[in-house]
Amino acid sequence: MVHERVMEKLAILADAAKYDVSCSSSNSTRKNKDKGLGDASGNGICHAYTEDGRCVSLLKILLTNHCIFDCAYCVSRKSNDIKRAAFTVQEVVDLTIGFYRRNYIEGLFLSSGIFDNPDYTMERLVRIVKKLRLEENFNGYIHLKAIPGASAELLKEAGLYADRLSVNVEMPTEQSLKLLAPDKNHIDVIKPMEYLKNEIVGYKEEKKLNYKAPLFVPAGQSTQMVIGATKENDLEILGMANYFYEKMNMRRVYYSGYVPISYDNRLPAIGTPVPVIRENRLYQADWLIRFYGFNVNEIVGFDQPNLDLDIDPKLGWALRNLEKFPVDINTADLELILRIPGIGVSGAKKIVAARKFKRLQPEDLQKLGIAYSRSKYFLAFASPFQLQRDLTSIQIKDHILNTQNSKYKNDFSNQLSLF
Amino acid sequence: MTQVIYDSTFEGWLTAVFEIYELKFEDVVFAKSEVSNTLLFSERYFVTTDFQKAKRVLKGLKEKLSSQGFANIYKAFLSDIDKIDETLFQYVKYIFSSTVNIEDDLSNAAVLAISKAAYLTGKESHRMKAFVRFKLTKDNLYYAMVEPDCDVLPLIEKHFKHRYADQRWLIYDTKRKYGIYYDLENTTSVQLEFNANSTSSKFLAEISDDNEEFFQNLWRQFFKSVNIESRKNTKLHLQHMPKRYWKNLTEKIPDLNR
Description:
The structure holds 2 protein chains of 2 kinds.
Chain A: H1 3-17, E1 48-49, E2 55-56, E3 58-62, H2 89-101, E4 107-111, H3 118-135, E5 141-145, H4 152-161, E6 164-166, H5 174-180, H6 186-209, E7 221-227, H7 234-247, E8 252-257, H8 276-291, H9 296-299, H10 313-320, H11 334-337, H12 345-354, H13 362-367, H14 372-375, H15 393-403, H16 413-416
Parallel strand pairs in A: 3-4, 4-5, 5-6, 6-7, 7-8
Antiparallel strand pairs in A: 1-2
Helix pairs in contact in A: 2-3, 3-4, 4-6, 7-8
Chain B: E1 2-6, H1 10-23, E2 28-32, E3 43-46, H2 51-64, H3 67-78, H4 84-97, H5 109-131, E4 135-136, E5 141-146, H6 153-163, E6 168-173, E7 178-182, E8 187-190, H7 201-207, H8 212-225, H9 234-240
């Protein structure tokens, strides 16, 4: 490799790839084959964390930032005056192997601007994964972008070598996509997703009958929506996410708070803060849907289309449904304990395990690491805690906001100073 | 009170447990043989590590615990938390005194302490799977230095053996002064002699593969480029990458030549 040029390309093409927030490397089943290099069968590993606190698990780069499209929200859009670069196939292979052998990464996340046409771009991406798998005997994790508009044959080939494929929906609604990316349609995104979903299901069935059947996208599909660039509410965003989870067997939907990068007047101006709190609340809601047994309609609805910013969605739900509380953690079902604010999945499981030995008291909960100061308003214990029952939801909210040191406190200082 | 002195290994501690039961010691404190803090009022009892006795204790524990609960005993021992051997003994006594599996009885102090210690070791061994940074030498050895709080090498050995099956590697714990070395067939425990020269940057540069420095710089560049400045969150960064690990993390060590 010509050192200086590769260093410069890496700077440009890693920078251009960083707005794609997915960095997961878990959920695959690929094992080390024939004493080759790497495996991707365990939990994901975050090898480093950037100064913005995000996980670095994969070598996340674009093959090139040359692009024929002009999507307003994207740094690599055609009309943007930036430095352009392109890796060769061999350079990407060498970087991946060199980083992987030094234990810097779990594998490769390869995306690309669309140069020439979708098939031509996709063909290059496939060539890289094939080379890694077949020539280097590389069994680490590979996340590949499925380029919208690429042919089914290429997608299928990509699926045979990659652990995860993703097509980004980018904008939660068709109108926003039309506004910001006139060259794109939602259908171009949905079509490959649907194709991949069906193929994944098909290969899984085959694998059940014949264990030698090849892996096909073992870590499933994911997608990403940009948040805060356009005017969608959380009901629309979570509704779309729910559609992906239910209809597309999507493993993950990522929410990417829009980082202003353009003077385009269709978009928030440069200098507008990244909507990190809203993004955080959306992820919390996403978790409630996937791991806590909540239905999307319980979290947002037409009467309340946006998530509260000052409290998390689970607390919000509890305050709207006070008649469901207090819950007696010594007798309640796990599903109900999971709905108590301040108790997470592992805390709920610990409670159910520990209560077999004795009736749990408030001090036991604190020992288990439960956020008791938050959950106490929703628990039924012998007195004096029963008194809490008579508080209204507004009073409970005030108590919690006043006693807890939220990481977002600064953003809500004007509200807190009221009390 | 009896001071039970063992050789600081897990098998040594298990032998001690066996003999405490065998000899019916009532009130015990544990001490590791290299530590010589003599207790004034106690009898001293020296344990000779006996693998048969250790095995029998393990067998007894296995019958009383789930596989995860069983594994947690070893993990807790490796945590190197102060007096963990004594807490573990309290825990073992509770296990043997009960007719049912008590590992989930987290309102019991010993059970909770062991569960936390095991969690700590588990968390750090996951971290070490992430934070090992191999450097390549001219003779094709990938080596890394680590300095974990818990003695995690025995727990991460298998992971690295599976993953880097086709390269020779060495992971060395500078705090405990031993490492694990993989020779393309097996892993072995090794101890290294260091002299003042062997840690100098000049020496390290001499033994390094020609591309090693370039890759380290590429990694630093990548680490810098993927960061989004307008989302800066130092608290979260430090929570995930505590400063005590930085000295062995390439991306957190500035390159002096640039």
